[in-house]
Amino acid sequence: xxxxxxxxxxxxxxxxxxxxxxxxxxxxxxxxxxxxxxxxxxxxxxxxxxxxxxxxxxxxxxxxxxxxxxxxxxxxxxxxxxxxxxxxxxxxxxxxxxxxxxxxxxxxxxxxxxxxxxxxxxxxxxxxxxxxxxxxxxxxxxxxxxxxxxxxxxxxxxxxxxxxxxxxxxxxxxxxxxxxxxxxxxxxxxxxxxxxxxxxxxxxxxxxxxxxxxxxxxxxxxxxxxxxxxxxxxxxxxxxxxxxxxxxxxxxxxxxxxxxxxxxxxxxxxxxxxxxxxxxxxxxxxxxxxxxxxxxxxxxxxxxxxxxxxxxxxxxxxxxxxxxxxxxxxxxxxxxxxxxxxxxxxxxxxxxxxxxxxxxxxxxxxxxxxxxxxxxxxxxxxxxxxxxxxxxxxxxxxxxxxxxxxxxxxxxxxxxxxxxxxxxxxxxxxxxxxxxxxxxxxxxxxxxxxxxxxxxxxxxxxxxxxxxxxxxxxxxxxxxxxxxxxxxxxxxxxxxxxxxxxxxxxxxxxxxxxxxxxxxxxxxxxxxxxxxxxxxxxxxxxxxxxxxxxxxxxxxxxxxxxxxxxxxxxxxxxxxxxxxxxxxxxxxxxxxxxxxxxxxxxxxxxxxxxxxxxxxxxxxxxxxxxxxxxxxxxxxxxxxxxxxxxxxxxxxxxxxxxxxxxx
Amino acid sequence: xxxxxxxxxxxxxxxxxxxxxxxxxxxxxxxxxxxxxxxxxxxxxxxxxxxxxxxxxxxxxxxxxxxxxxxxxxxxxxxxxxxxxxxxxxxxxxxxxxxxxxxxxxxxxxxxxxxxxxxxxxxxxxxxxxxxxxxxxxxxxxxxxxxxxxxxxxxxxxxxxxxxxxxxxxxxxxxxxxxxxxxxxxxxxxxxxxxxxxxxxxxxxxxxxxxxxxxxxxxxxxxxxxxxxxxxxxxxxxxxxxxxxxxxxxxxxxxxxxxxxxxxxxxxxxxxxxxxxxxxxxxxxxxxxxxxxxxxx
Lengths: 663, 297
Description:
The structure holds two protein chains of two kinds.
Chain A: H1 2-13, H2 16-19, H3 22-50, E1 54-56, E2 69-71, H4 73-98, H5 100-103, H6 106-128, H7 132-150, H8 157-188, H9 196-202, H10 205-220, H11 229-235, H12 238-260, H13 267-291, H14 295-322, H15 326-361, H16 372-375, H17 377-390, H18 397-413, H19 418-450, H20 467-485, H21 488-501, H22 507-544, E3 548-551, H23 569-572, H24 574-579, H25 581-584, E4 587-589, E5 606-608, H26 612-632, H27 640-659
Antiparallel strand pairs in A: 1-2, 4-5
Helix pairs in contact in A: 1-3, 3-4, 3-6, 4-6, 4-12, 4-15, 4-20, 6-7, 6-12, 7-8, 7-12, 8-10, 8-11, 10-12, 11-14, 12-14, 12-15, 13-14, 13-19, 14-15, 14-18, 14-19, 15-17, 15-18, 15-20, 15-21, 17-19, 17-20, 18-19, 18-20, 21-22
Chain B: H1 2-17, H2 27-37, E1 40-43, H3 48-66, H4 82-103, H5 107-138, H6 143-150, H7 158-176, H8 195-198, H9 204-229, H10 236-260, H11 269-290
Helix pairs in contact in B: 1-9, 1-10, 2-9, 3-4, 3-9, 4-5, 5-6, 5-7, 5-11, 7-9, 7-11, 9-10
C-alpha cells in the first residue's frame, strides 16, 4: 500500500518537469528516476532473495479480489534490468541533450524528459501489472512515450516518418494482443495472466500462443516483424535508442515468457516455431548488420540478431519441456534470460558510444569515419569492449549466456532422438554461423569507425565526449567484466528463478554441476586476463632498452597514399555480401560500357543495402491492400444520394440474408 | 617442443620435395630469437590496439590449451561444454588481430582482415558440427570425457567416424593456420595473402609473439587430431611416440600439399570451406546411423 502511494506521488511529481527552470529539469528527472528505482529494486531484491511473490493492492483493497500488481521473480528480474539501463541512459542524456538545450524550445525538452520518465514507469509497470486491461493500458503508455522520444528531431521528415511507422506497427501488435486477450476472456473468462492456464488447459494452445507471440514479437523485433527497428533506432536520439534496444524490446520477450509460463500442451510445435523464427531473425539480422553503412542501423539489425539468440534459448527451453529434457530447458531458458540482461548492457553501451560519435562528427556513415580512437580514446575503448562482449568472446559477459545455450544443446545431443538431433544440430550450426558473423560485423564496426586513418574531414573536428557521457559507459563496463569473470553471481539466481517456474526433477543436480562449470570458466578467464597483462608487461620491459621507431604504414611502394585507399564499410562487407546475395539481394547499379565505346567516359556505381524480407512480406502486401482500398475509395463520391443508395443496398442485403437464414 | 619444430618440418619437407636442401629444422626458432633482439617499428597511423593485439592473441591460444587434453593426460581444467570455450577463446585472439590489421589503415591489411573474418566465420560451423557430433556419439560435452567415451568398447565402428573427423579437422587446421590451399604463407604478392598480409606492419617483439602464436596454434590442432585418432587407453609411452609421428606427418602433409597443390583462387575459397562443413555434416549423419538413431532399412 505504501509503495503504491509513493509510486503515485512520483507519477504526479513528474509533471514538475514542465514547471521547473531549464537547468533543473534534468536533475528533477534524475531524482524521480532514482526514487522509482530505489522502490522498485528494493521490492525486486526482496522477491528474489526471499522467493515469495510481492502483491501490491491498489486503492480498492476492500472489494477487489484480484491484486493490482504482482511482482514475481520474472518481474523482479526484468525490473532490475530496466532500472539499470534506464538510469545510465538518463545520465548519458545530460551530455547528449546539452547542445539541443539552445536549439529546441523549453517545452520540447520538458516533453522529452517527461516522456523518458514515463517510458521507465510504464516499462516497470508492464513487468508487474497482471490484469489484462491494466496491462494493455501500460503497454500503450510505453508505446506512446517511446514514440514521443523517437520523434525528438521531428523537424526532420525522415525522423517523423520513422516515428509514425513505429507507432502504426506497435498498434498492429496491440491489435493482436487485444484479440488474444479477448479470446482468452470470452472462452474461459480469463482476466489476468495468472489465470491463462484456465484457457490453456481446455483449449488448443498453439493458436492463442501464436496471437500472443505475434503481438509481443512485433515489440521484440523478431523477423518478419522487425521492420520498425532499423528505421526507429537511427531516428531516435542515442540514449533513447540505447534504452529502447537495450530494454524496451525485451518487454516483448517478457510478454512471451509470461504467456509461456501458462502454456500446457502443443509445447513441441510452439518450441519449434519459436526456434525457427529465432534462427531466421538471428541469421538474417546479422547478415543485414554486416552490410549496413549506418552505425545505428547496424546496431539495430544486431539487436534483431540478439533477439534471435534469446529466442533460440527460449525455443530450446520449450523443446526441452516438451521432451522432458530438464537439462536442455533449464540451460535454454537461463541462457535466454541471461542474454536479455547481457544484451541490455552491451547494446546500450554500443548505442551510447555510437551516439557520442554522431555528436562529435555529425555523421553516422561508417564510410566517413575512421581513426576516431585518437580523438576519442575512452569512447573508442568502450566501443571495442562492447564489441568483444557482443561477439560473445570470453572473458566478457556475452560469452556466458551463449555458452549456456551451447552447452544445453551439446549436452542434450547424447540422448536426443533422431528428430531432436536434427533440430539441435541445426541450431548449433545457426549459433556458430551467427557467432562468426557477429565477429565479422563488429570487427568491421569497431575497426573502421575507430581505427586506421580518418576517411573524411568530419573526423578532424571530433572531440572526446564530456564526462557525463562517459561515466555510464564505465559503469556498464564494470558489469560487463564482472559478469564475464565471475558468472556465478548471476547464473545461480537465474537458475533458481527458472526452477521455480517449472518443476524439474533434478534441477539441483544440474545447477550444482553448472556452478562448478562457472567456477572453472572464472578460472580460465582469469588465467587469460592475467596472461594478457603479463605479456603486455613483458613487452613493456623488453622494449625499454630497445629502440622503437615510428614510420608510415607500409604501402608496398605506393608512397603518399590517401586515406581513401583504406578498406571501407562497403568493401569490407563486399565478399560476404556477394556470398549471401541470394538472401540479401543488395541492389547494385552499374552502367554497362557500350562495346563501341573507345574511351572511358565517366561512370558511376551504386549499391544500397535493402531488406528483402521487409519488401516481400510487408511492403508488397501493404501496397496491394492500399491499392485495393484506393479502388474502394471510388465509392466515396461525396453525393448524398449515392450514400442513401448504399444504405438501402445494405438493408436489402440484410433482408435477403435473414430470409435465407444465412446470418 | 612440437610447436617449435613444426614450421621447420614443413619448410624442410617443402624443400625436399622441391629438391633443395633447405634451412635447418631450427631455423624458425632462430628467426624468432633474432626478432626478440630487434627494436620495433610502429606505424604512426596505429593506436594502442595495434600494440596489445599480439599479446592478447598469444594469451588466448595459451588459455585455450588449458582445456585441451593431451592423449592420456587430461586437460588442466575441464568442464561441460569446454569445446565451446576452446573455439571462442581462439576467437578473441582473432578479433584483436583483425582489428589490429584495420588499425594500420593499409588497404592490404584491410583486405587480409576482411578475408580472415570471412574464412573463420565459414570454418566455424564445421568445428561446431564436429563437436556436436562427438558429444552425440559419446553423450558427454567436455574434451576429457569425450575422449574417454570415444573409444568405448561398444563403439566398434568408431574408425569410420574418426577418419572423417580427422579429415575435417586437418582441413580446419589448414584454414585456421592460413596454409594452402586456402592461403599461401610464402607468396610475395600481398594481394593473394590472407594471414601474412594482416601482420605486414609488425616487427621485432610483436612479430615474434605472432610467430609463437601461430606455432602454438599448429600444435593445438595437431593435438586435437591426435586425440581423436588415438585411443586414450593405449600405453603412455607409445602415445608420445605416436604423437610425434602424427605431428611430423601432419607437417609433412602440409609441406606436401604446399609443394604440389596450387592455392585456390580467392573466390573459390568459400566453396572449399563449405565443403568442410558438408564433410562435418556427413560425419554427423554417420554417427546418426552408428548410434542407431537413424535406422536404415
